[in-house]
Amino acid sequence: GSGADNDLYINQAVVFIEDAIQYRSINHRVDSKSIWLYRWYYSRTCQWILSLTITIILALAFIEKPSSLTVTSDVRYRPPAWNPPCGLTESIELLCFLVFIVDVSVKSYLIGWEEFWKNKWLMAYILTLIVSLTDWIVSLSLFCPEAVRIRRILRPFFLLQNSSMMKKTLKSINSTLPEMASVVLLLAVHLSLFTMFAMLLFARTKDGQQDKEWVRYFRNLPDSLTSLLVLLTTANNPDVMIPAYSKNRAYSIFFILFTVLGNLFLMNLLTAIIYNQFRGYLLKSVQSSLFRRRLGIRAAFEVLSSLKETPATAQQSCVSTGALRRVLQKVEMDYRCKQAIMRSLKMCSCDQLSAAQFQKLFEELDKDAIKQHPPSPEYQSNFMQKMQFAFGHPYFGYLGNVVALANIVSICVVLVMDADKQPSERDDFFLGAINCFFILYYLLEMLLKILAMGLKRYLSYPSNRFDGLLTVILLVLEIATFSVYGFPHPGWRPEFVGLLSLWDMVRLVNMLIVFRFLRIIPNMKFMALVVTTLLDLVKNLRAFAGILVVVFYAFAITGIMLFKDAVGPLGNTSILSILPCFCTLSCASTFDHKFLFLLFQTFFYIKKVVVLSFKEKCDFMALFQAEVICHLLYLLSVHLICRWANIYFVAWWLISSVIWVNLFIALLLENFIHKWDRRCHREPLSDIEYQRTVELMFRDVLEEPTEEELMEKLHQHPHLQLCR
User: Fold this and answer.
1) pLDDT for 81-91, tens place per residue?
2) How far is CA 388 from CA 64, 379, 391, 403, 688, in A?
3) Which of 190, 356, 626, 630 has the smallest count of CB within 10 Å of its CB?
4) Cα first-last separation, the chain
5) Ion transport domain: from which residue to which, for each copy (predicted)?
6) 382-522 domain in CATH 1.20.120?
7) What is the pLDDT at residue 127?
């Protein structure tokens, strides 16, 4: 009947609008049962269960053999780690696989058979599940003794395929690779030519005492190539040139030319190419997201125009405002956007909406999120008004910053004076007294600001929430200190009581005071601009963080499989006997032998090794660790692994340093430039905060899709039959 058809059209419009809000594709089944299943699948509960399942299966690496559940990280001293019995983690894996099977089945059904064969991600999803289940069956049939588990390397794929933004980012990276390959090839040519020059320049001579450069770094082609590749990361600089430089100063020209051409020109040229190309591809990705949003809104308009209540005499398609209100009541969307659209509907004088009017209503989704601060309280008393003016003035905040700076300076003075004193000689009276004074001032400042601004307005500012929270914590710690150790007095050095000593309590208070000094950031506009840029990256670029987790996880699992048993607890005596052999390494002067016992033992420790490569952009330690590991494996007679160990670390360096860090720099620059331009073209408003997403970063340069493009795409919908 017409009533059932109208309900179907309403539900279809609801789903299409929700697709537009989330930038989802509308190419899915739109019958009544499929719509119910579709909304159930994308409900918060189902998506939360799916996210929890992905988190659990990724976290299994911390408890699987070799387990990371130990306090100390040194295999020489830690007790045997608890390893789960065979079948425990496998049972958890099976439950996760069942959730993924349901997930891929629902997705495949909703998009239809024809769309399924076009979707490479779904086919890869099914293939990953098949390989993982096969590997799981093999593990159980062998009672879990195998060290190589293919399914562990494939786990990050479940995280990757669940995020549309991560898939778009990966597609953009893949499209950028041809341009990056040209510079990487030029870098390889540069490396190869200088390797040949080095082997000719530092060839073996008759005088063995003068061949230190040849012995340590340029004995053969692999050693020469590795030495210069490490030099490209500056990890072995200047160690690699010291023997030659000691022999003749002129040899430094070779290393200077190599570093200048490689680091200053080629590496920075690569950064520029990645920034230019990736920004273009990311812009295309965001343009496609805008098209999806416009297409979803237009699809909702088309199905609503098919309602029986639409006037038959209308020359063009239109939608009644009543039907749109019914749709908005069912749509799950941001409360601010929904209220703004409802207000626009009330202000509209017509009962029917054209396609342009309908689309214009939903442009509210594209606008910056604006946070309006509550008004200050209105006092009737003249005295209270003066108090409000004085303590609500920015100068009162500046005074608080000066006091906080004085607090930091006083703490520094006391720490410098007591640096060389024994704990028994230290007098905590002065430090305790000044802390008590400043904390009382912070409490008074907070109360006066609340009096002037009102509690709601005070809490609406993130800087005030940060300041107030730390003030309350400091007050609680100070009260706890006085209740346990009494009030400060000369010679205040009581015995240890309770959980923390007096010195520990004072140190904790001082650390929070130093942390509280970050309150000055909002008052320094350029610093605030830099900090908000970083915070926006943290909030909005989750896709890049997800890809980083995928890369870390895959390399960590691979490292465990390759090198897990290569280093064992040899004891101090054995390791000291091995260390002289490391004196030939380029970085032996700074090498800490304790590091040997942290290598690739568990998932937690391999992540430490991998994280080291993010220490500095131009000081990537990964290749240094590769050289150390390779030599150690050689000393331990693991010759087959040693020959190929460098490939693993060079691959990590290329992905993390050459590609990933440059991509991060590109987006950091893009975000900062956008914020700088907005700062220059708009005066800052004290009561308004603008929040920006990745899509809105490029909003000013995006092109609106035309009517013909939208209708052509709608008529190609595999499951939606339009009336016109």
Assistant:
1) 777 888 888 89
2) 60, 8, 5, 21, 21
3) 356
4) 21
5) 55-278, 397-672
6) yes
7) 95
Judge if the upstream peptide bond of residue 490 is cis by omega within 30 degrees of 0: no
Sort residue 395 into left (φ over 0), alpha (ψ -120 to 50) or beta: alpha
Element (H or E) spanning 715, and its range? helix 707-715
152, 564 Cβ separation under 8 angstroms: no
The contacts of residue 497 (CB under 8 Å, 6+ apart) are: 484, 485
Alpha helix positions (H), 142-210 = 150-154, 156-161, 164-201
CATH class of the domain comprising 172-285: mainly alpha
- Report field, pTM of the whole predicted structure over 0.85: no
Which pair of tokens denotes residue 274?
């990645």
Long-range contacts formed by 241-248: CB under 8 A, 24+ apart: 243/212, 243/213, 243/216, 243/217, 244/202, 244/213, 246/212, 247/210, 247/212, 247/213
CA atoms within 13 A on the CB side of 428: 25
* Token pair recorded at residue 507: 């140190």
155 closest CA partner among 50, 60, 52, 48: 60
Could you state, in order of their start, the residue ranges of all structural domains in the chain? Answer: 172-285, 382-522, 524-567+590-681
Q: How far apart, in whole angstroms, are the C-alpha atoms of residue 596 and residue 178?
A: 38
- Tell me phi and psi for residue 209, to 5 degrees: -70, -20
Q: What is the mean pLDDT of residues 567-596?
A: 42
